[in-house]
Amino acid sequence: MFTGIITHLGEVAEKTGDSLTIKVPEEFLVNVTLGSSISVSGVCLTVTKLTSDSFRIEYMPETARKTVIGSLELGSLVNLERSATPTTFLDGHIVYGHVDTQAKISQIKEEGNSKIFTFELEKSFLELMVSKGSVAVNGISLTVIEVGDSYFTTGIIPHTLEKTMLHKSVVNDLVNIEIDVIGKYIKKFINL
Fold it and tell me: Is the pTM of this model over 0.90?
């Protein structure tokens, strides 16, 4: 489990058909061991190899199809968060790292000190979202501003923009989306 509060950025240093090696600041790897779960741009993945400044993860074909992990290239930046512990502050919201789908950035506009991102998303996922609810975008815990028929918006403050890979994002980029788990469970129980 994660909180959606990104602590570090990593860079893809090596890629094979089913694994990524992520170069990271050494302090990120404190208390990380083989088998640790790490959120890599919102995807919960298992550490399979460690060095002093990198870790490797392996991923399944389903992960490559469902998330942006399969389309990352050498040099791509990724958001990183170590898994939560019983003493972790829940500053964001409950994020499992189980990505539901991908969304496309359709607009980025400046508003005051922040940027408003608009994401195109399938209606079946939008039905699980509410204005002022939570969503994880590439693992970042964000507040939904507006939900439309084919999109949702969220605002990004300068601190979040600077500390996450969103500062490199442009229109038409794909991002991982994890819908708040509460909405998914409510819909499941209503449909029983």
Answer: yes
pLDDT in tens, 61-107: 999 999 999 999 999 999 999 999 888 888 889 999 999 999 999 99
Rounded-to-integer distance, Cα 3 and Cα 149, Å: 28
Q: How distant, in Å, are the alpha carbons of 12, 104, 147 from that of 153?
A: 28, 12, 7
User: Alpha carbon 35 to chain centroid distance?
Assistant: 20
For residue 26, the SS3 value is: helix
Do residues 66 and 114 share a domain?
A: no
Distance of CA 145 to the CA centre of its chain: 18
| 113 and 168 within one domain | yes
By three-state DSSP, how is residue 157 classified? Answer: coil
pLDDT of residue 192: 66
H runs (alpha helix) in the chain: 61-66, 123-126, 158-163, 181-190
- 3 state SS of 87: coil
Same domain (yes/no): 12, 70: yes
Q: Are 138 and 166 in contact (CB under 8 A)?
A: yes
